[in-house]
Amino acid sequence: MYKHLVCCVLIAFHVTLVTSQCYLSINTGGSGEVLWLTSGPFGFSSSGQWRTTDGGTLSIKNETYATSGADALGNFTDTTWIVIHEPSNTTMEAAIRTYWTNDSFVVFIQEVAIRTYWANDSYVVFIQRIPKGLQNSATQPNQTISAFPSFLLESPEVPDRGEVGYLQYGSFMLGDMAKKSGILGPNATFHGGLDGSGPLVFFDRKGNALVLSPLNNFMAASMWQEDHAPVLGWGIMGGVDSLPAGFEHKTIAFCSNQSIGHAVEGWGQVMRQVYNKTQNVTDYHQNQDLSLTHLGYWTDNGAYYYYNKLPGKNYEDTLLLIQKNANDQNIPYRYIQLDSWFYPKDSVQAVTTWDATENVFPKGIPELQGRLHLPLVAHNRYWSVNTTYAKQRGGHFDFFIGHNLSLPTSEIFWQYLLGHAKEEWGLIVYEQDWLNVQLLFTELLNTNLTAGRDWLLQMGSSALNHHLKIQYCMALPRHGLQSLEIPAVTQARVSNDYHLQDDQWRIGVTSHLANALGLAPSKDTFWTTGDQPGNTYDKSEPYPSLQVVVATLE
Length: 554
Ligand SMILES: *[C@@H]1O[C@H](CO)[C@@H](O)[C@H](O)[C@H]1NC(C)=O
Ligand SMILES: *[C@@H]1O[C@H](CO)[C@@H](O)[C@H](O)[C@H]1NC(C)=O
Ligand SMILES: *[C@@H]1O[C@H](CO)[C@@H](O)[C@H](O)[C@H]1NC(C)=O
Ligand SMILES: *[C@@H]1O[C@H](CO)[C@@H](O)[C@H](O)[C@H]1NC(C)=O
Ligand SMILES: *[C@@H]1O[C@H](CO)[C@@H](O)[C@H](O)[C@H]1NC(C)=O
Ligand SMILES: *[C@@H]1O[C@H](CO)[C@@H](O)[C@H](O)[C@H]1NC(C)=O
Ligand SMILES: *[C@@H]1O[C@H](CO)[C@@H](O)[C@H](O)[C@H]1NC(C)=O
Ligand SMILES: *[C@@H]1O[C@H](CO)[C@@H](O)[C@H](O)[C@H]1NC(C)=O
Ligand SMILES: *[C@@H]1O[C@H](CO)[C@@H](O)[C@H](O)[C@H]1NC(C)=O
Ligand SMILES: *[C@@H]1O[C@H](CO)[C@@H](O)[C@H](O)[C@H]1NC(C)=O
Ligand SMILES: *[C@@H]1O[C@H](CO)[C@@H](O)[C@H](O)[C@H]1NC(C)=O
Ligand SMILES: *[C@@H]1O[C@H](CO)[C@@H](O)[C@H](O)[C@H]1NC(C)=O
Hints:
The chain is an alpha+beta fold. The chain folds into two domains: 7-160 and 212-252, no CATH class; 285-553, TIM Barrel (Alpha-Beta Barrel). The strands form seven sheets. A nine-stranded antiparallel beta sheet has the order 6-7-8-11-22-18-17-15-16. It has a seven-stranded parallel beta sheet with strand order 23-24-25-29-30-31-32. Strands 1-10-3-14-20-19 form a six-stranded antiparallel beta sheet, with no helix packed on it. Helix 1 packs parallel to helix 11. The longest helix is centred in the middle third of the chain and has 15 residues, at 260-274. The protein binds 2-acetamido-2-deoxy-beta-D-glucopyranose (12 copies). Residues 1-20 form the signal peptide.
């Protein structure tokens, strides 16, 4: 796919000139050289101290050396620096990996700069390796314990080049809720930390664009903008207190000369190639997902029957009457979505048992299913410290129990939970909502290098095993990136709840990210008629057709 890369990258630090594979007649794109980003200091935290190459606490031991190898993206050359904290001899290797394209790439190290000659699709990978590991490394949760690459926030140097803009995805709904954009320079602000740290796009008016994102350790990777200096660094989240020997973390930069859209799409293709979430894999799972291929009835926030039943009826009767009405009107609903109203919650609204309460479905979901004969999409949220599944609470499964929330820590739990819902409820899609709250308020997920990935992979492989699909809702960018390793995740919500936000249908910018990651963007519930007498929101829908069009095209 990327056979004819025509791009070159010049990377430089406080070291003497080292040149390899320099190929300077690169400028075939006609757009010329653009100097957008200047390298900042390398850094890491150890023994309770943040150490950097600019503060003098880290020195560069080896100027550079080159090694070659092959990975999922092809043959490459790594150009590596070794930085060291002399008193303790703690080291970090900082490497830039370029792929052999023979007529295209350049690594040119001369001064403190990353230079990119824009042409068609190309990428480099920045790697941090910690040969002997780190100890006592935790900083603040939103900060990082390592920084490479890092960039100075300066206005780009080329005088006639025009301004460079940026767009960063941040916070929940796959980074939709706190998208940030502006002009690159010392006053630019980014959304880093646990909640932010989404893919970052730089672009100019000519259509040149660069996408930066983590390439592995997605759940533990953060970006941080220093308070005291205009520097942006990528690394491991600040809550992690140690890294094992031989630890490796990667960040990718992808560039295109064609548009922001092409850059995001091309970046997504590379990401999906690395994790085998190819178009075929995506198509296969999305085509099997009835909630993506067919019409269904939703009861999510904004829907008429969200925490709302027909007068004098329970939820079971209400759903059966909704179905009867649809049949009478020849509306071919193929599934029904049950939202958070069906299960019991604790005092912080965390789920205790993922099953229907008696007042909702008096005879249980299997009985309801026996009458509905319609597959279900069922919602779930963050786990209660009082969850009945945890061994600590008399249940059968391993859970981490924190101050606010808990988290299942074994795959067998998911095999049980999802298998049971598939067999007895007719579940087809597991909707994991409130992913942001689960991550931000579960200590394990803020401090453990691997627990976030383990949790989502266990959920995902259990879903795959039971031929279920997953929707991520209120996902942070890091959850979206993690889904690259989880083929059962077919879709993600990309805007706020319906009727919380009037322009909730404006999903264009974030849909692009979803699509790049191989996820169908979900717009959520909408009303198909303007006035819904007796609705609990005291609202009307001025543009039902617009909602239909966006939901259909998504
Ligand atoms: C850019 O690269 C892509 C992928 O290799 C290719 O499909 C496309 O034709 C190229 N476009 C141009 C203008 O070279
Ligand atoms: C330093 O670089 C040289 C090549 O220039 C390489 O052979 C050597 O292994 C490097 N030193 C270390 C400690 O990695
Ligand atoms: C990688 O290089 C080897 C020779 O070292 C070559 O045989 C192989 O085809 C190359 N692979 C790719 C994907 O370019
Ligand atoms: C660091 O390495 C130097 C040179 O090899 C050695 O003299 C020194 O004792 C080492 N320091 C520690 C704390 O291991
Ligand atoms: C491609 O580039 C690599 C790295 O410089 C080189 O070793 C290899 O021989 C080249 N392959 C071809 C076919 O030119
Ligand atoms: C992008 O680069 C390709 C190949 O290098 C070139 O053919 C094309 O004209 C460039 N497109 C733009 C818009 O500069
Ligand atoms: C940054 O903000 C300061 C204070 O508002 C302003 O004086 C300065 O011109 C700004 N710098 C740039 C490059 O926009
Ligand atoms: C981390 O950042 C988020 C906003 O992104 C903020 O709400 C939270 O309080 C911060 N956490 C700490 C410990 O500073
Ligand atoms: C992707 O598939 C290839 C070939 O089947 C396999 O070697 C590789 O390990 C897979 N990579 C991942 C990340 O699963
Ligand atoms: C992808 O699917 C197409 C058509 O279904 C098939 O021809 C092709 O071999 C598949 N590619 C891979 C890599 O599985
Ligand atoms: C968990 O259960 C205990 C004992 O019943 C109760 O005191 C506590 O409030 C519950 N926690 C939450 C968050 O509801
Ligand atoms: C991180 O969590 C995993 C469970 O996912 C656990 O096995 C491991 O011991 C934890 N690591 C640390 C350093 O607590």
